[in-house]
Design a protein that fits this description.
about 450 residues, mainly alpha, 2 domains, MATE family efflux transporter, DinF-like, MATE_fam
């Protein structure tokens, strides 16, 4: 697992950025693609199991969302050590993150078994739907350690600029589960519970492969495999700020869906269509941000301030170009693409209220995601957490709730998202122009 021949940890040329981004993109889309397969398999059982899967999957998604600090925080710290020529320290960060992932995963299993019933009843409105969701969750939650270890594993592997290994690991786990899912659900008669078992199987394979790779690296470099309190505290400090950022995002998007639902079924359905496209583009742009994290962290670790500026300029330019191209494509497809998702005339008539905000925001998103990656690579999570929270409290949330109060409809909700993104763009742009975040040297 080394940097490819012909490149260095500080190489930020187009080929290197593309290589890092492509590897990250494969890992990012593997799980959503598997979930589509899982949904299609369970969907053949009928509406009740499919609804139960939706309820259970929402709960499991929160585990992934709240565990993102293990990936982003570990990438930043490991990349800085890697750039400083301390691969052993980068692996030590991976050891610390993996211990945290395992401990958090066990806690999720224990707490999840206790709260599965009340959560399912709250989300599924009781009855048979809640019963089915509980049966799925109580099995699927055993995969939580694997989900979190995968985040930690992706974090330290990205930090040492390993592009192939995380792709192989994630595809192996999800590929095996995609094959096993229809067999367990339909072939053995396990039904919905077969889906949960397939999920746990995938996460178990991923856990074993990531832990195995970490142990091999640690033994080779003489890195202790026991938990080191100082490393754990450093990881948790960075994780606190990243967790605050994740919670702000969740509050915004859950509130937006709640407000849209109050405008009626066509509005919430139209919002869902455009939001899924937004999420897809966020995944694409996030792959560029992950490349920025790796390159900036390595450059700061090597005390190469000039390289940090070069990476920042180049990656930001790529983000704007990619976002602009996406905006042009989605504008051209405005009359065609929504019909792929729904034939409903009322929903199609409502989608334009959000569509043109979505199109116009693509270049802004490219700029914001790129600089998010730069600042995350510098472990500037405290600033990003404060900025995201401020933009949510004073931009997104007031506008969308005013939209409900004054009847602005779906356009008001997406105006709130636009203000949220523009506020973040101003914030990260001003921050990147200064030098306060550019702390060089090993972590």
């Amino acid at each position: 697992m080394t940097t490819p021949p012909g490149s260095t940890p500080l190489d930020a040329g187009p080929g290197r950025v593309l290589s890092l981004s492509a590897a990250a993109l494969v890992v990012l889309v593997a799980e959503p693609l598997y979930l589509l397969v899982d949904t299609a398999v369970v969907g053949r059982l009928g509406a009740l199991p499919l609804g139960a899967l939706a309820v259970g999957a929402v709960v499991l998604a929160q585990v992934s969302s709240l565990g993102t600090f293990l990936a982003y925080g570990t990438t930043a710290r490991a990349a800085r050590a890697f750039g400083a020529g301390r691969r052993d320290r980068a692996i030590a960060e991976g050891v610390a993150a993996t211990w945290l992932a395992l401990l958090a995963g066990v806690a999720v299993i224990v707490v999840g078994q206790v709260v599965a019933r009340p959560v399912a009843e709250a989300l599924g409105d009781g009855g048979l739907l809640a019963d089915e969701a509980v049966s799925w969750m109580r099995i699927a939650l055993w995969g939580a350690p694997g989900i979190l270890v995968a985040m930690a594993g992706n974090g330290w592997m990205r930090g040492v600029q390993s592009t192939r290994a995380p792709v192989v690991v994630v595809l192996a786990g999800n590929g095996a589960s995609a094959v096993a899912c229809p067999i367990l659900v339909h072939g053995t008669g396990l039904g919905l519970q077969g889906s949960a078992i397939a999920n746990v199987g995938a996460q178990s394979i991923v856990l074993a492969l990531f832990v195995g790779a970490l142990v091999r690296e640690a033994v080779r470099l003489g890195v202790p495999l026991r938990p080191v309190p100082d490393d754990l505290r450093a990881q948790l400090g960075l994780g606190r700020d990243l967790l605050l950022r994740s919670l702000a995002f969740q509050a915004c998007f859950l509130s937006a869906t709640a407000v849209c639902a109050r405008f009626g079924a066509p509005s919430v359905a139209a919002h869902q269509v455009v939001l899924q496209l937004w999420t897809f583009m966020a995944t694409v742009l996030d792959s560029l941000a992950i490349a920025a994290q790796q390159l900036v962290g390595a450059a700061l670790g090597a005390s190469a301030a000039g390289s940090v500026r070069a990476v920042t300029t180049r990656v930001t330019g790529y983000g704007i170009v990619l976002g602009t191209a996406a905006g042009v494509v989605f504008a051209a497809l405005a009359g065609v693409l929504p019909r792929v998702f729904t034939p409903d005339a009322a929903v199609l008539a409502t989608i334009p209220a959000a569509w043109w905000f979505f199109v116009a925001l693509q270049p802004v998103a490219g700029f914001v995601f790129a600089l998010d990656g730069v600042l995350l690579g510098a472990a500037d999570a405290a600033f990003l957490g404060r900025l995201t929270l401020a933009c949510a409290l004073f931009g997104f949330l007031p506008v969308i709730w005013a939209s409900l109060a004054f009847g602005w409809g779906l356009a008001g909700v997406w105006a709130g998202l636009s203000l949220f993104m523009l506020g973040r763009a101003v914030g990260v742009g001003l921050r990147a122009r200064g030098d306060g975040w550019m702390v060089t040297g090993p972590a």
